[in-house]
Amino acid sequence: xxxxxxxxxxQACGLMVLAGAASAAEPxxxxxxxxxxxxxxxxxxxxxxNLVAIIALPGSDNQETALATWDVENIAGGPTITPxxxxxxxxxxxxxxxxxxxxxxxxxxxxxxxxxxxxxxSGATKTFVTKTYLTGSDHAKFSEAFADNTRKLGISKQTQxxxxxxxxxxxxxxLPLDPEQVIVAQLNELSLSSNYYLYNLRTGDTKLLxxxxxxxxxxxxxxxxxxxxxxxxxxxxxxxxxxxxxxxxNPDTGEFQKHDALSTRLSQRYTVGISGLDEDTGKLxxxxxxxxxxxxxxxxxxxTRKFDDEPLVAHPEFDIAGLILGIQASNFNRVLGFRVAGxxxxxxxxxxxxxxxxxxxxxxxxxxxxxIADYTDGLARVLFSVSDHRHAPSYHVLFxxxxxxxxxxxxxxxxxxxxxxxxxxxxxxxxxxxxxxxLDLPAGWKAGDAALPTIIHPHGGPWxxxxxxxxxxxxxPFLTSRGYAVLRPQxxxxxxxxxxxxxxxDEQWGLAMQDDKDDGAAxxxxxxxxxxxxxxxxxxxxxxxAAAAAVVRPDSPYQCAISGAPVTDLxxxxxxxxxxxxxxxxxxRTVKGMDPMRETAKANIPxxxxxxxxxVRTPSFHAKGFYDAVRSTVPAKFELIxxxxxxxxxxxxxxxxxLKLIEDFLANDCGPGGL
Length: 675
Hints:
Elements: H1 6-12, H2 30-34, E1 39-44, E2 50-56, E3 65-71, E4 80-83, E5 89-95, E6 100-112, E7 124-136, E8 143-144, H3 157-166, E9 169-173, E10 181-187, E11 194-200, E12 206-211, E13 216-218, E14 230-236, E15 242-249, E16 256-258, E17 264-265, E18 272-277, E19 284-288, E20 296-301, E21 306-307, E22 319-325, E23 335-341, E24 345-349, H4 352-364, E25 369-375, E26 381-388, E27 391-399, E28 403-409, E29 422-428, E30 434-440, E31 452-456, H5 475-480, E32 485-489, H6 499-503, H7 512-526, E33 530-540, H8 542-552, E34 560-564, H9 581-588, E35 607-612, H10 620-630, E36 636-641, H11 652-668
Parallel strand pairs: 31-32, 31-33, 33-34, 34-35, 35-36
Antiparallel strand pairs: 1-2, 2-3, 3-4, 5-6, 6-7, 7-8, 9-10, 10-11, 11-12, 13-14, 14-15, 15-16, 15-17, 18-19, 19-20, 20-21, 22-23, 23-24, 25-26, 26-27, 27-28, 29-30, 30-32
């Protein structure tokens, strides 16, 4: 019988807050955040032979990326390096098996999309093309990953070009015990639905596992055999309502049967994620908030169609982000631990061997977040990362549980002493709701010191949340090193901090969602942290909407707003901004509230708006239209940034441009001013 892991969790969780430096250091230079990291997200093949990462191209002054592969047995010998091309730039890589690597490249592209992907239906669109490649550890040959590149009869040349641009295949599951095969999805060019195959990395041979089409999509594949265990199906359930059905394969008959206990209405937005199969009992591991405001890990028996009487893992404050299941022969598919979505995602191990290694690494790096990325059978090789809110991730390999070999730090030039304290806090909104937040303070500041210039910094999404630790965007340490306090509210509508808080944001854009941000500013003033005459709001994407909304709301607590890549016109947003059908159905109906473009006559604070000219997620007409409407009423600036997409990674020049805009606007055009 599986024993609940709850007690382990209650004893093991918590975020260590590190104290800031004793005195303020020099502001961190813009170039420190804009340069290409020395190394990004390395991974190790399951056989422990190859290690791959994206690195800064040697000799490029951290302006270009390159693909790097190490022989793990000879790391000291250095990597094989292939530079990015003149147009196609490497942005991600992953070590597979059978001596294969998966590599993502991205390049600028301008042309007629005609509804293919995000962008204009008519006319030319400036965007980016991202392609997935397979190569070997020697980088000798790159080919489009898992693709069938033969010309298909019955489809137009325009559709064929569309598929060439957007790609037709993706990796779905690595099947870690299979030496050659993985599970991939390939787009059927005639039906434009995906079929799922076993794919042999050496030969390119395929075997059909699931034929896509209609309302059905695959769920859990058996990690040992690749056999489909669950699938989901969307069915109408009344006017403007849908049911997300979960069907489970009956092991005796092979038939898929609907399970009511796992099926939900889309409008209810319950989380029901099937994350694994316990081979001893046949039960499913399910991550769900059906029984709590927080996501918990439960076991579900498909034969009795019942959940266990108590959760496998639960936390009173935070979601369980996932179970850590074994990937090697000696521990395959066993629960080794779990991840807690606390202020910073934390790994907790219950397997004795993994716990011993993890505890040893935490002792070697006290106070840091240690995350195990990959390991070999018997833990002879362990790849892990180390970071905290003052230190960008660094990567290391542990050999034979005794020898540490550093691969490198992503941003070793960052002065950690210039970054202050980080806290997970809560405050009370005007209607009594408790709002969690991350508060970052300048180095050397302590309670009782003079109140600080402060930035309210809402995240994008809005169905997302902020995490503590190192801020990959660079925005938070950039601001705190310049003497600003930064509050990141997890306002209602944020996902991942409780289902009730998430749903409370429905149809509250610019209304109660905005109140939460203003109430965070008021709370910081009450706490003596924020100077009420030196407050600003800065956000990007949905956060850019929040900044634009602040410009036109009456009695603004802010002296100015900075709105990056915003949505400002809810009437023109529609539901085309997501490629995921479920998200369009669920989130599209919630995007209602105060529309800033209908309130521009009420603008009352200065605003800076910026957006990339290759941003197809929040096209430039949102920022430009708002700027044109308010510039005669309030001081306003607008910047259209050449060749910048919506999402990072950006080119170094994009980060340099945007950070310089923010720095200059705060110093010269906004009440918070300089230090």
